[in-house]
C-alpha cells in the first residue's frame, strides 16, 4: 500500500534543548519543575558529607521526596493556572463580547 506523500509529515528533528524550549512555550511550568528538581538534587549531593549520623538511605529518601515535591508543585501550579485561564478568564471575555 502506497501512502500519499502529502499526508505524511515527518517529525521535526531537533536537539534536546530545542525540544525543551518548545515544551516551555506550551507548558511553562515544565522547566520550573525540572529546575527545582535539579536544585534539590544538587543541594542533596552538596549536603551528603555533612549529614552527620543520619543513615545514607534516609538522607537519599529525604532528598528524593523534596525533589518530587518540587516537580509535583510545578505540575499543580501549571494545572491551577490552566484552570484559571480556561474557566475564569474565558467566561469573562465571553461576557465582554456579548
Verbal overview:
- The protein has 98 residues and is mainly alpha-helical.
- The protein has one domain.
- It is built from 3 helices and no strands.
- The longest helix is centred in the last third of the chain and has 42 residues, at 56-97.
- The N and C termini lie far apart (52 Å).
- 6% of the residues are buried.
- The chain crosses the membrane at residues 26-45, 65-84.
- Residues 1-93 form the HIG1 domain.
- InterPro entries: Hypoxia_induced_domain (IPR007667), RCF1 (IPR050355).
- It comes from Platysternon megacephalum.
Low-confidence stretches: none
Rounded to an integer, what's the Rg over CA atoms?
21 Å
* Biggest beta sheet attributes: none
Supply the number of structural domains. Answer: 1
Gross morphology is flat
Number of helices: 3
Q: Could you report the average pLDDT, rounded to the nearest whole number?
A: 81
Helix content: over 70%
Element order, helices and strands? HHH
Number of strands: 0
Q: What is the strand content?
A: under 5%
Structural class determined from secondary elements: mainly alpha
Separation of termini?
52 Å
